[in-house]
Amino acid sequence: MIRELTIKNYKSILDHTIELGRVNVFIGENGCGKTNILEAMAMVGAALTDKLSVEELFNRGIRVAKPSSMRSSFPGTPDQEIVLQCSSQLGTSEASFREELRIAAEEGSAADVKWYENRGSDEEQMARAVRSLATWMQRPDIFTTEHIEDIVRTLMARFPPSEKALHELARGSILRGGMGREQLGALVGDFAIYNANALALRGLQTVSRRSPMGIHGETLDVAIAGLKPDVWADLLERAKCVSWLEDIVVDPTDHLKYQGHKLGKSQSTLYFHDKHMPPANNVFSAENVNEGVLHVLFHLTLFVSESTPRILGIDNVDTALNPQLCRDLMKQICELAAKHDKQALITTHNPATLDGLNLHDDEQRLFVVYRNDEGHTVTKRIKAKAQPEGQKLKLSELWMRGHLGGIPRNF
Question: Fewer C-beta neighbours within 10 Å, C or N terminus of the chain?
Fold first, then answer.
């Protein structure tokens, strides 16, 4: 998992560090920079995989603008590159690895803007190469001292540092158990920001072509069809937090369409059964089913599918959902994230979402995002419910009454 994210010079974030858990929920007033935090993580994934074209950034859910608008432009801030630092944890061990990414851009016409990574000096490249090999070097049954000597000689043929310095760097990386750039790329390289859209979920609109499911819910049926039977059974039971739902069917041949259950142009092969209606007439296609069940199914699928990113972002998780459903969905997300080894950065504007969090679990974290007196985006972690004297309030109530911050004051 990513344990620490430092963001410098990205949009409204001048210089800020966030310590992350498994499920991280960000609240705050509109325009405070919540989505910018998710976008910064997406930029990390893009830089690690060398996919920094405008199209690639759009496909990750980033709101791409001209480079001068992507960088912080506060008074007195020099025009400089974006710096992103990630500290990651290798499995359940205490071993960690920190990587720094520097991103700049060539100015030009909107169509010609190209983001690129400043890879740094030869020494920095060499350091990354050694760290990349460090994980494998920890296997003494495979990598002997002779193997390490061979690797050192190979690296020295390309990079200028002395043999002594290279030996020390390699040995230090091995002792630290560093993940390496490639391993970190495998962890966060496919990070995307998911934001459910009703038309995409209904199979009526295709904007994102990510596989197996787009960032707005495109081809949700394909993602569900790829689930293992036991995972699908668990997903179906969890989706029944929608009170009327009896069953969900993926009809690959779409023969139900020709029985009159789909009259529009939807490409989705998802069908839903309403338990309150007679079996002969209780089927709804994705294009005409209640919007809420599609949103619930979309978010649950993100956390149970092996094909979705291990680390992902969700913007506005509460869209189209009843407050009680927001609470139930958040509880299920926390359970599924731990069960399927996922990590999430989530934004919400619905106070009820907070009531699904257990702040006694250190892996479930709540952050209030706000702009300080200089306009810089910063966060404050809420570690426990600070109750007003003589009262016992839910997190949602604490937020609405102003005890947590993150609410507009300018009305």
Answer: C
Q: Is 312:344 a contact under the CB 8 Å cutoff?
A: yes
Q: How far apart are CA 229 and CA 309, in angstroms?
A: 20
Domain range annotation of the chain:
198-303
Q: Which residues partner with 380 through β-bridges?
A: 368
Name the 3-class secondary structure at 307: coil
Alpha helix stretches (DSSP H) within 78-227: 122-137, 145-156, 163-176, 181-188, 198-201, 220-225
Q: What angle do CA 320, 322, 324 make, to 5 degrees?
A: 145
Task: Provide the pLDDT for residue 172.
Answer: 47
Of the pLDDT bands very low, low, confident and very high (cuts 50, 70, 90), residue 198 is very high
Strand 270-274 with 245-250, pairing: antiparallel
317 φ, ψ (degrees, to nearest 5): -65, -20
What token pair was written down for 245?
């739902």
pLDDT per residue as tens digits for the range 161-185: 555 555 555 544 433 344 456 677 7
Q: How far apart are CA 336 and CA 273, in angstroms?
A: 24
C-beta separation of 305 from 226 below 8 A: yes
Q: How is residue 71 annotated by DSSP?
A: B
Given the DSSP bridges, would you call strands 193-194 and 82-89 parallel, antiparallel or unpaired? unpaired
- Which H helix or E strand runs over 13? strand 13-19
Whether the model clears a pTM of 0.70, i.e. scores above it, the answer is yes
Tell me how crowded residue 338 is: count the other CB atoms within 10 A of its CB: 15
Distance (Å, whole) CA 245 – CA 272:
7
d(CA 190, CA 184): 11
Residue 365 pairs with which residues in a beta bridge? 24
